[in-house]
Amino acid sequence: MSHHIVLRVISKIFIPMILLFALYVQFHGDFGPGGGFQAGVIFAAAFVLHTLIFGAKATALAIPSHLARALMAVGLLLYLGTGFAALVRGGNFLDYNVLASAPIVGQHYGILLVELGVGVTVAAVMITVFFAFTGRR
Amino acid sequence: MIEIVNVLLLAFMAIVALAVAVMRSLFAALMVSGFFSLLSAGMFLLLDAVDVAFTEAAVGAGIATILGMGTLVLTKTDTAKPGPISPWPILIVVLTGGVLIYGTLDMPRYGDPQAPVHQHVAPRYIRDSAEEVGVPNMVTAVLASYRGYDTLGETAVIFAAGVSVLILLAARRRDEEEPA
C-alpha cells in the first residue's frame, strides 16, 4: 500500500489516538463505559489497521507474533493470580476485599488487575488470530 | 424523534440482512455484513449500551470483516450456483421463527421494572455496590467483582479460542511446508 499516501498519513495520526483511546477505555472502565473486553478489541484494531496500511513485516517489529502469543496466557494468568493472591491473603478466591488494608481499596486493586488481565488476553488473542490469517497468504 | 431513528435503523438492518442473503459475490456480502454490524452498533448506542456499541464497531465492523477478507484470499470469492429450490428449509425457518415469536409473548415487556430479572440480585447491586465495591460504574462492579468467576470463565474461553485458531491454522501450514 506504499502509494496510498493519504491512507498512510491519516493512519499514522490515527493509530496513536486509537491506542490512547483503548488505554482510556481500559483504565477509566470503572468510571465510564468500558473495561477490559472493549479496550482489548480497540487496542487490537489499531494493530490490524497498522498491518493493513504498512504490511505485516512492519507490524511484526512493533509486536512480534511470539510476544502476542505469550501475552494471551499472561492476561489469563494475571486474572488467576489476582484470585490466588486473595486466597493467599486469607480470603476466598477472587475476594478482593483482602487485597489491601481497606476493603474498598482492595476492590479497586482487584478490579484494576482483573480488567487489565482481560484486556491483555483479548487484545493478544485478536492480534494472534489476525496474524494467523495473514501469515497463511 | 428516537422512534423515527429506531424504525429507520431497524428497517436498514432488515434491508441489509436481505441483501446479504441474496448476494452471490462473497466479497460484497462481507462488506455489507460489516455495514450491518455498524448499524447494530448504532442500535446498541440507542439502547444506552455504549460499551457494547464499541465492541460491535471494533469487532463486528472492523476485525471480523478483515478476518473474513483474509478467509476469502484463501478460498473462493463466489458462492456456488444454487440448485433447484426445495420448500423444506423455508418451511422449517418460518415454523421456528413463529415458535420463537410465540415464546416472546410470555416475556415481560421491554424495560419492565417488575420483570423477574430485575427483582433477583439487581436491587442489591444497585443499593450496595457503591458501598461494597465503590466504583461508580455499576456494570464494572458486577462484571469484575460480584461476577468475577463468570468473567474469569469468559477470559478463559477467549484464550481457548485463540489457542484453537493457532492449532488449526499453524498445524495446516506445517503440513504444506513439508513436501516442498
Describe the secondary structure blueprint for this structure.
The complex is a heterodimer of chains A (137) and B (180).
Chain A (H helix, E strand, L loop, with lengths): L4 H23 L8 H19 L1 H7 L2 H24 L14 H32 L3
Helix pairs in contact in A: 1-2, 2-3, 2-5, 4-5
Chain B lengths: L1 H21 L3 H21 L3 H25 L12 H18 L17 H11 L5 H9 L1 H30 L3
Helix pairs in contact in B: 1-2, 2-3, 5-6, 6-7
Describe the structure.
The complex is a heterodimer of chains A (137) and B (180). With 137 residues, chain A is mostly helical. Chain A has one domain (5-134). Chain A is built from 5 helices and no strands. Chain A is elongated and about 60 Å long. By secondary structure, chain B is mostly helical. Chain B is globular and about 60 Å long. The N and C termini of chain B lie far apart (64 Å). The relative contact order of chain B is 0.05. The model of chain B has no long low-confidence stretch (mean pLDDT 86). Chains A and B meet through helix 2, helix 4 and helix 5 of A and helix 3, helix 6 and helix 7 of B.
